[in-house]
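Thread amino acids onto this structure.
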């Protein structure tokens, strides 16, 4: 099962879960985005991504990029880009290139066993840490894409912090 379908199904099956803002509601220190990674080259529409909450330096992080379309959000068909990188505790830094300027959303998961699958427990809930751009509060269903959207500018790209749940 794909990350998108697994994440969507797992979130829908949850009864109550919330995700706190990565920066506790305060402005993120801009210096957190001053990093180098092989995936970053300063290309137009580049999204500089900081993912927080890794407990171990094991496995991979998978990043899925979605356009502003609620029907395609968290679904394979709606994904416009995917990137995998080695997970590094406590934060992993990487870049993803958006196809063009516009509004996008990101879903990530920490593939702790590097099997390239978003693992779930016996109840269908996530067995691996995951997160969504803007760190929306998750209640009884997956968030709408509008809750996860951020703007990507051709020249400045975007800077996004995601906290793992």
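Threaded sequence (165 positions):
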């Amino acid at each position: 099962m794909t990350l998108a379908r697994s994440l969507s199904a797992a979130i829908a099956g949850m009864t109550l879960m919330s995700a706190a803002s990565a920066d506790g509601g305060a402005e993120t220190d801009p210096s957190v985005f001053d990093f180098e990674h092989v995936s970053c080259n300063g290309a137009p529409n580049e999204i500089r991504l900081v993912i927080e909450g890794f407990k171990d330096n094991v496995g991979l992080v998978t990043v899925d990029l979605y356009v502003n379309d609620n029907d395609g959000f968290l679904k394979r068909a709606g994904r416009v880009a995917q990137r995998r990188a080695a997970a590094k505790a406590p934060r992993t830094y990487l870049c993803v290139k958006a196809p063009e300027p516009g509004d996008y959303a990101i879903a990530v998961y920490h593939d702790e066993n590097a099997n390239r699958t978003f693992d779930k427990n016996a109840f269908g809930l996530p067995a691996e840490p995951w997160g969504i751009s803007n760190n929306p509060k998750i209640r009884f269903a997956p968030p709408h894409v509008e809750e996860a959207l951020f703007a990507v500018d051709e020249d400045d790209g975007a800077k996004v912090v995601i906290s793992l749940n």
